Amino acid sequence: MPKIAEILRFLEEISPLALQEPWDNSGLLVGSGGEEVNSIYVALEATLKLVESLPPHSLLITHHPLLFKPLKALLWEEYPANILRALIQKNLSLIALHTNFDQTHLGRYVASEVLGFSGVEMEGYVGYFPLKMSTHELASHLKRALGLERIATVGQERYLERGAIITGSGGSLAPSIKADALLTGDIKYHDAMIAKSLGINLFDIGHYESERFFGEILASVLKKQGYEAIIVDSKNPFHYS
């Protein structure tokens, strides 16, 4: 059985923690490097339902960190203390790979493997690629590739030559984008107005929808190293009526 420290060393090699943003909290969040794990699970989020379903002495690796800010109290009825309690009671370990994994794996994978764009080049969080299609054609392509019923767009109908993608939430970075179109999620109204004024077309592909591939990416990478990981589907918290 592998130890947490061994798995952490491998994860550090493929996606260095030094790449994460200052506000981020990737790395080992619950557990000890000396602990041995019986099984490895990968998921987008750590939810109470998920944690309660895992067998004791397992390792859960998530994209989103369960903890972002220091906690002043641990109240078992409240989030995230309720999940922390379940993790500790079952002797489960928790690792998060967030903004560092965005840069090393997630952005490129979604752009090339999911959306089918070739020539993807990563610059930090941003993946750039040639487009050669109209705004309408790109919107239709994104809906098909991601299984979206509708997509919110910003900007006029025109021919697009270069695209950019930021998985998760990247609308605030629109002013620094060196492309005709930006694909990202959680686009805020004011970010949309700024992008429109700069002549950048925005395509809101959803936060969950653009990051839900984390499990399959990481499980594949771990398997190449000899670690078997079980993908646990994370559910979109939003329901659309």
3D architecture notes:
It is a single chain. The protein has eight helices and eleven strands. The model has no long low-confidence stretch (mean pLDDT 96). A hairpin with a 2-residue loop joins β5 (121-123) and β6 (126-134). The chain has helices spanning 4-14, 48-53, 81-89, 99-114, 135-146, 189-198, 207-211, 214-224, and strands at 27-30, 39-43, 58-62, 93-96, 121-123, 126-134, 152-154, 159-169, 181-185, 201-204, 229-231. It is an alpha/beta fold and 241 residues long.
Descriptive labels:
single chain, six-stranded mixed β-sheet, five-stranded mixed β-sheet, elongated
List the helices and strands and how they pair.
Elements: H1 4-14, E1 27-30, E2 39-43, H2 48-53, E3 58-62, H3 81-89, E4 93-96, H4 99-114, E5 121-123, E6 126-134, H5 135-146, E7 152-154, E8 159-169, E9 181-185, H6 189-198, E10 201-204, H7 207-211, H8 214-224, E11 229-231
Parallel strand pairs: 2-3, 2-11, 3-4, 8-9, 9-10
Antiparallel strand pairs: 1-4, 5-6, 6-8, 7-10
Structural class: alpha/beta
Strand content: 15-25%
- SSE topology string: HEEHEHEHEEHEEEHEHHE
Strand order of the largest sheet: 5-6-8-9-10-7
User: Segments where pLDDT lies below 50 for 5+ residues?
Assistant: none
Average pLDDT reading: 96
Radius of gyration, in Å, reads: 19 Å
